[in-house]
């Protein structure tokens, strides 16, 4: 019997919940989703292997931009922000998508939230931060503050946001957060109880919405303390469901996926 193969490439990968939630759906379809912990030196070889062996795969830290050199065609928001988390293998070609962006848009729309006139404080300046900006801008947000550990990365993201026609400024620690309506944590802080920097700048109860990309079983401290939150688990499940739709055409049951963790 022939099994379809899917997977996720990252380093490290041991903490990822993706294999659990993906396999709840994919194993029922006779497929298998496997985590691949790939060191940077082996990345190109691993992608070449999956191009032949798999029908698609996810990429996660630190490869969401590295994968671009292998992609034959970018679609949707992946084309806009040059960050890919989902690859479809089709007729020997690699197609790149970004379901982190589309997942956040779906979850914001489900809540009926309009972003026009609101301002957003983003912690982080990597792939998740870019995904958050793309999603929030799609819903009308045009005012961003960026708080990040490495100033050079902050500057780069501010440049990208301004090029897109929105306003953006650097935010420093211990700033008064009352100016901002929405808080996004687009760093791993909170996943491993290392959220001290995050806690320095945030007062979660103040924000009308907190979006936390960090996830763990149960809930992060940030999502817990927020009045209204889109949690990292909400995002993880939605982006996984949308990846499955890209690969198989099926729109999976999110509740069944959540039930597995
Ligand atoms: P990335 O491109 O590598 O960027 C990581 C960002 O986090 C950078 O801004 C980095 O700051 C910052 N950072 C990393 N470790 C930190 C620390 N210990 N203290 C302070 N800042 C730190 O990664 P990414 O793709 O943006 O992902 C960020 C997080 O979101 C990851 O934990 C990832 O698992 C999570 N994520 C979750 C979902 C979901 O579905 N829930 C989707 C996408 C991403 P520097 O600029 O200083 O390096």
What keyword list fits this structure?
Rossmann fold; alpha/beta; six-stranded mixed beta sheet; binds NADP nicotinamide-adenine-dinucleotide phosphate; 12 strands; 261 residues; six-stranded parallel beta sheet
Characterization of this structure:
The protein is an alpha/beta fold and 261 residues long. It has 2 domains: 118 residues, Rossmann fold (3-Layer(aba) Sandwich); 116 residues, NAD(P)-binding Rossmann-like Domain (Rossmann fold, 3-Layer(aba) Sandwich). 37% of the residues lie in helices and 21% in strands. It contains 10 helices and 12 strands. The strands form 2 sheets. Strands 2-1-3-5-6-4 form a 6-stranded mixed β-sheet, with helices on both faces. The protein has a 6-stranded parallel β-sheet with strand order 9-8-7-10-11-12. Helix 1 packs parallel to helix 9. The longest helix has 17 residues. The chain is globular, with a radius of gyration of 18 Å. The model has no long low-confidence stretch (mean pLDDT 93).
């Amino acid at each position: 019997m022939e099994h379809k193969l899917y997977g996720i490439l990252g380093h490290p990968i041991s903490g990822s919940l993706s294999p659990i939630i993906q396999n709840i759906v994919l194993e029922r379809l006779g497929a298998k989703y496997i985590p691949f912990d790939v060191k940077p030196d082996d990345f190109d070889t691993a992608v070449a292997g999956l191009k032949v062996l798999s029908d698609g795969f996810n990429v996660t830290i630190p490869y969401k931009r590295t994968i671009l050199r292998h992609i034959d065609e970018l679609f949707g928001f992946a084309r806009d922000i040059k960050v890919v988390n989902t690859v479809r293998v089709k007729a020997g070609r690699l197609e790149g998508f970004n379901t982190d962006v589309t997942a956040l848009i779906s979850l914001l729309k489900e809540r009926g939230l309009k972003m026009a006139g609101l301002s957003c404080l983003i912690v982080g300046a990597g792939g998740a931060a870019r995904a958050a900006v793309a999603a929030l801008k799609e819903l009308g947000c045009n005012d961003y503050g960026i708080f990040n550990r490495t100033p050079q990365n902050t500057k780069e993201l501010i440049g990208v946001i301004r090029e897109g026609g929105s306003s953006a400024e650097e935010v420093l620690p211990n700033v008064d957060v009352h100016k901002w309506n929405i808080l996004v944590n687009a760093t791993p802080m909170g996943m491993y109880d290392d959220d001290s920097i995050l806690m320095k700048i945030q007062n979660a109860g103040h924000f009308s919405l907190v979006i936390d990309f960090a996830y763990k079983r149960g809930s992060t401290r940030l999502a817990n303390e927020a009045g209204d939150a889109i949690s990292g688990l909400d995002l993880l499940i939605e982006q996984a469901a949308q990846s499955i739709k890209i690969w198989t055409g099926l729109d999976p049951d999110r509740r069944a996926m959540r039930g597995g963790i």
